[in-house]
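Regression check, NAP case 329:
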Amino acid sequence: MKQIMLDRYGQPEDGLRCAEVPDLGAPGAGEVVFDVLAFPINPADISFCRGTYRLRPELPATPGAECVGRVAAIGSGVTHVKPGDLVINLQRENWTQQRRVKGDDVIAVSDGIDIQQAAMLRINPATALLLLADVVPLKPGDWIIQNVANSAVGRLVIRLARPRGVKTVNVVRRESLFGELKALGGDVCVLDGPDLAAAVKAQTREAPIRLGLDAVSGRATARLSACLADGGVVCNYGSMTGEDPVMSRSTLISGGQSLVGFILGRALGTRSLPEIRAIYADLGQQVAKGNLSAPVEMVYPIEDIKEAVAHAQRGERSGKILVGPNGPV
Ligand SMILES: NC(=O)c1ccc[n+]([C@@H]2O[C@H](COP(=O)([O-])OP(=O)(O)OC[C@H]3O[C@@H](n4cnc5c(N)ncnc54)[C@H](OP(=O)(O)O)[C@@H]3O)[C@@H](O)[C@H]2O)c1
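Current build output:
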């Protein structure tokens, strides 16, 4: 079977190859073997290939934080999934044609779900949900602000904030996105830049903003913080610039703001397996109904992994880059 191998850290397309490896064989007791139908190339996967992610295993290694698969076989004692079921995998190393994992690591998703959307179910929808749930208590009428608002996470934040009555200020790098983000339910859209705080004040009529979601870092963090009310919280959960977040002393000391961090693994780690399954059951239903989705720009075959990762690093994409390791999806 085919599996992606990372041979050296650095520019992702230089270090990756599509290798021929031995088949996995039958599952052992308590194990599940599934065919990988699709996986996305997320910013964290790019960072993993560069060697700048928090996990930096010995090489060669197989990247891939998420995927959707179809169960091919189950070992004795596995009762919650059966051959033919669609599943997502809580474990990594998913850039491959087939995976063998512990039964507890797979979660079944409904058969009616769109395969491309199911491939992106594990990370971004749960991240958007828990950014809204865990950082600051939010009630209907509260305002939040986020950068990378057109990213998959940003769009999901808009969709999940709306039914909670939480209003969103959406910061992006180009005005052409305003229409689609407003159609998703975004309340205010603004361009990032030195005048961000003044533009936001004008559009929100100076409503206090309690939470800023930052995945850009560098000076962009300070620009979001300048839009927050005294006592507001900036939550840094990514770094599209590759820089560390910067905040001014005056917002921290005089404004009483705080800067906190978020990573999905830690947020899920505070929850039991039944709670985690319940989160994905709910998100899976919302994805299957079409309430939650992320646009897709292109799906590549696994042999074209170098082209796929190069494409995933381009700015101004209209959506995610996916790979279909066992044929088109
Ligand atoms: N902490 C966690 O647990 C967690 C979980 C999931 C995701 N994340 C983070 O969330 C962020 C979004 O992920 P995603 O999968 O939703 O992304 P995505 O759909 O691939 O979109 C990437 C976004 O980053 C923007 N961008 C790229 N380079 C940039 C730069 N130099 N400055 C400002 N913006 C830039 C793009 O804007 P343009 O369209 O203008 O190019 C786009 O909005 C990433 O930082 C990711 O690592 C964190």
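Comparison notes: The chain has twelve helices and 15 strands. The CA atoms of residues 249 and 255 lie 9 Å apart. No diff flagged against the previous build.
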